[in-house]
Each structure stands twice: as structure tokens, then as C-alpha cells.
């Protein structure tokens, strides 16, 4: 079968399409004929440690959707032909192995491409908004970079929870296109200059939760915007700014909570612990169409390099997907 690998060199990452043996499922694993896999920005960023040391190479891709081909031992809940989605190491390939603890059956209304956009992105959002962020109905959420894949998923999930959402983006067009998804306040900016507008929108109280997909350049401004007992989730740093000042007085007096949302150091068991809650709390809204994964563009299998370049150009709204059919 064909599979994409990332070759690491000093400060560089090169994508290679290789011919490799089709994997065989072990205990509690499922072999899936992949039909689609979504791009996640973090897996392409050199220096995050996701692909090993310079000189190493690793199959790339984090989540996907496809049809069950073969079951490993100890499996009884699935059968060949079932449509499934989930985390899948090396998902930019024709076939992949999924751990039964992280598999979900695809709702009938979802296409392969929409389903591939769910596992990593929406579960990270669930972690930020529900498990750690405790976002409640009528609370205010601020999303830096609301037009990103995580940003759009956070917007949709927050609206399903009954929250109000402020989002920043450098594109007025993208903000306008997010209005139908429930964006309450759109701020066209990439700078740390949104405090006054946020405070005006929240009647001077500030936001209850922040999702920071941008990084350190907006960290201090986010703290200024937080309400009493506010929470701040850091999920990315596309600006490359990894350090920021912390207003200790604000942290102390407003009883703020700062936390990260990353799966880099989590085990499969730790990741799987949140899946039942996600299936109970979010999947009904996805199945009913109240949350619809937003796919910006689908690239043919042979065009992963072009898909990566498109993502890095920051022109997309929502998720970019690779059709893992081996064609094109």
C-alpha cells in the first residue's frame, strides 16, 4: 500500500510517499480501508517533537475515516464494512490501524471527508470547552483564530452548548461566513488589540473562557479580557511566540485558570477516557446535523504536499482533508 512519511532533517521536514506493507491488526485493533484523513497543523510543525529527532522518519497523519476490513482478536462490537472514524497513526495512507478504544461509528449523515474532520479536532475542543473549560450556557467564549479548524469546531460546539462566542480573524470575509454558524461578535484583527471590543460586548465583565489557537502574541491581551474565575486554554502557537508575560495580580485576584490542551504526552488510555463523554455530549449534535464539520477543501491523495502548502497559506476556513483513495 502507499503511505506518506515525514523525513526530519535539521530544521526541515520532507514528505515522502512510500510503498509499505499493509498492516495486520493486533489485539483490540481494527484494520481500516481509509477513505479520508484530515490535516492537523501541529503534526507539520518542526520542533514540536511529534516526529522524532533529526534524521528520523515517521508515517504521518493523525485521524481518518474509512471502512472496517479486518478485526484483531478480542473484537466483537464491529464487523467488516462498518463505517468508522477515529485517531489513526499514519492516517495519510490507503490502510490504517485504529485502536478500538478510540473508534467511533460514523453517523449516517456524515460524508467520509466530514467524518475524518471529527476525531482529533472535535475531541480536543471537547477537552477545552467541557472537560477543562466547564463552559456553560450563556457564558462568553473568546476564540483567537476562529477560522481555523479548531476555531470553527470550538464555535460550533460552544453554540450547541448555548454559549455566546467572540472570534478573531485577520479576514473579514471569513468572519462573515461564520456568522451563519452562530458567531456573535467577529473581530477582524491579528493583533493584540481586542480588549475594548470584548469588554463592550460583555458589558464590562469579560469572557468566561478563552481558546487561544494563535500563541504568545495575544496571551497577555487574553488575560486582560478574562472575567472573574475565567479560564484560558492554550491549544496552539502559529505565531511562533512561545513566551508571554503573565499578570500575576490578575491571575490572583480574578482567580483565573490557565491550562493547555495537547495530546502529545497522553497515552492511548488517557485519550480514551474522554471518548464516552464526547459520544454522549457531542455526537448527538453531530449526528442530528446541529454540528456539521466544515470542510474547506478536499485534495486528491497524491497532492498532500499541495494540501500542506494550502494550509500554511492560511486561506482555508475549517478543515482541509486528503482523500486517501490512492487516486489523483
Outline the structure in words.
The strands form 3 sheets. Strands 3, 5, 6, 7, 8, 15 and 16 form a 7-stranded mixed sheet that branches. Strands 11-10-9-12-13-14 form a 6-stranded parallel sheet, sandwiched between helices. The protein has a 3-stranded antiparallel sheet with strand order 2-1-4, with no helix packed on it. It folds into 2 domains: 2-118 and 293-323, Medium-chain alcohol dehydrogenases, catalytic domain (Quinone Oxidoreductase, Chain A, domain 1), CATH 3.90.180.10; 124-260, Medium-chain alcohol dehydrogenases, catalytic domain (Quinone Oxidoreductase, Chain A, domain 1, Alpha-Beta Complex), CATH 3.90.180.10. The mean pLDDT is 93. It has helices at residues 112-116, 119-132, 149-160, 172-178, 195-201, 219-224, 248-253, 268-272, 275-281, 283-288, 304-312, and strands at residues 2-9, 12-19, 29-38, 57-59, 63-71, 83-87, 95-99, 103-105, 140-144, 164-169, 185-188, 207-212, 226-234, 257-260, 295-299, 319-323. Helix 3 links the parallel strand 9 and strand 10. The protein contains 11 helices and 16 strands. The protein has 328 residues and is α/β, with parallel strands linked by helices. It is 26% helix and 29% strand.
Amino acid at each position: 500500500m502507499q503511505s506518506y512519511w515525514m523525513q526530519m532533517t535539521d530544521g526541515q521536514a520532507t514528505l515522502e510517499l512510500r510503498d509499505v506493507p499493509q498492516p495486520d491488526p493486533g489485539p483490540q485493533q481494527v484494520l481500516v480501508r481509509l477513505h479520508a484523513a484530515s490535516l492537523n497543523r501541529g503534526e507539520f510543525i518542526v520542533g514540536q517533537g511529534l516526529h522524532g529527532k533529526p534524521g528520523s522518519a515517521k508515517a504521518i497523519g493523525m485521524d481518518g475515516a474509512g471502512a472496517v476490513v479486518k478485526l484483531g482478536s478480542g473484537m466483537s462490537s464491529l464487523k467488516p464494512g462498518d463505517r468508522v472514524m477515529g485517531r489513526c497513526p499514519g492516517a495519510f495512507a490507503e490502510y490504517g490501524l485504529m485502536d478500538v478504544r478510540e473508534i467511533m461509528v460514523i453517523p449516517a449523515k456524515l460524508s467520509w471527508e466530514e467524518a475524518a474532520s471529527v476525531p482529533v479536532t472535535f475531541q480536543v475542543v471537547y477537552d477545552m470547552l467541557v472537560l477543562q473549560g466547564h463552559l456553560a450556557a450563556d457564558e462568553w467564549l473568546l476564540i483567537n483564530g476562529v477560522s481555523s479548524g479548531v476555531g470553527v469546531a470550538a464555535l460550533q460546539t460552544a453554540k450547541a452548548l448555548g454559549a455566546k462566542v467572540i472570534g478573531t480573524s485577520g479576514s473579514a470575509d471569513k468572519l462573515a461566513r461564520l456568522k451563519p454558524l452562530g458567531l456573535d461578535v467577529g473581530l477582524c484583527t491579528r493583533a493584540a488589540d481586542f480588549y475594548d471590543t470584548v469588554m463592550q460586548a460583555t458589558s464590562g465583565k469579560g469572557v468566561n473562557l478563552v481558546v487561544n489557537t494563535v500563541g504568545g502574541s495575544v496571551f497577555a491581551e487574553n488575560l486582560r479580557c478574562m472575567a472573574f474565575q475565567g479560564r484560558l486554554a492554550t491549544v496552539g502557537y502559529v505565531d511562533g511566540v512561545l513566551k508571554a508575560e503573565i499578570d500575576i495580580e490578575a491571575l490572583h485576584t480574578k482567580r483565573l485558570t490557565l491550562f493547555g490542551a495537547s495530546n502529545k504526552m497522553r497515552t492511548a488510555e488517557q485519550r480514551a477516557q474522554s471518548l464516552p463523554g464526547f459520544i454522549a455530549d457531542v455526537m448527538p449534535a453531530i449526528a442530528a446535523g446541529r454540528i456539521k464539520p466544515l470542510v474547506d477543501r478536499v485534495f486528491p491523495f497524491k497532492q498532500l504536499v499541495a494540501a500542506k502548502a494550502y494550509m500554511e497559506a492560511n486561506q482555508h476556513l475549517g478543515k482541509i482533508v486528503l482523500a486517501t483513495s490512492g487516486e489523483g
